[in-house]
Amino acid sequence: MPHQQLISRLQAVSGLSEQDRTRLTRLRYKAKSLADGEYVLRQGDKPQSCIVVMSGLLSRQRVVNARTQISSFYIAGDMPDLPTLHLPVADCDLCSVGSSTIAAVPHSALREIMNESPGLTHALWRETLIHAAIYREWVENLGSRQALGRVAHLLCELTTRMEFVGLADNGNFRLPLTQQDVADACGLSVVHVNRTIQELRGLGLIEWQNHTVTLLRPEELKAASEFSPEYLHELQPSAR
After folding, report:
1. What is the model's pLDDT at position 122?
2. Which of 74, 122, 130, 213 could join 58 via S-S bond, C-beta 3.0 to 4.6 A?
3. Architecture of domain 146-239
4. Three-class DSSP category at 5
């Protein structure tokens, strides 16, 4: 069920009352399994539901000058197309990276619980703002950092976001990205990405084998990428 992933995500960044958690468990949805490369949404679509990622990874992407540019990744608990509640035409593609499972929640169901609960309206609005902050950070990452900093920053961000929802343990997590995916997210060539990953390995900062990533010296990796998690806006446990 998508409810637990969504509750974990919103609890981490907004905090939820017991009553609002109960409301989320009652959401109507339709689950679907996706194969690697399968599209959830295409630019120009007019969806009538929002997606909750139940497992796996989705990418937001567009083709620019014949090249795919990935502008975000979405993990379990994320709602990548939440803006379609108010912006009815999709402005990007959503694609599965590796196999994934999603749940489609009708717009009508989301509007219903938002009308019932100012707390959930606040939580979903805050979630939208956080993803906007992530997008701005990605723009700065592409525009201001060299290759090693770009790739290291991406890994630090994904680790932190996965830790929020219990998908990473001591800097170890599953990441089904190919080097082409990393290249498309970081504005680099595949050859450059390969060299950069080898450099990160050679410096003893990461291990990356069989789609499993381990941050060996996370503080040094953060320093190399100037990563600071404030833009992800996680609440402190006492505030949840």
Report:
1. 94
2. 74
3. Orthogonal Bundle (1.10)
4. helix
Query: Distance of CA 161 to CAs 110, 167, 188, Å?
Result: 24, 8, 23
Measured at the alpha carbon of residue 117, what is the angle toward residues 51 and 41, in degrees to the nearest 5?
Answer: 10
Which pair of tokens denotes residue 117? 């609960």
And the tokens for 210?
A: 């069989």
pTM (predicted TM-score): 0.94
The predicted structure's pLDDT at residue 236 = 60
Q: What is the pLDDT of residue 13?
A: 86
Beta strands 49-64 and 206-209, pairing class: unpaired
Q: Are 12 and 235 in contact (CB under 8 A)?
A: yes
Contact 180, 98 (CB under 8 A): no
Q: Where are the domains of the chain?
A: 3-139, 146-239
The CATH architecture one would assign to domain 3-139 is Sandwich (2.60)
Low-confidence ranges of the chain (pLDDT < 50): 238
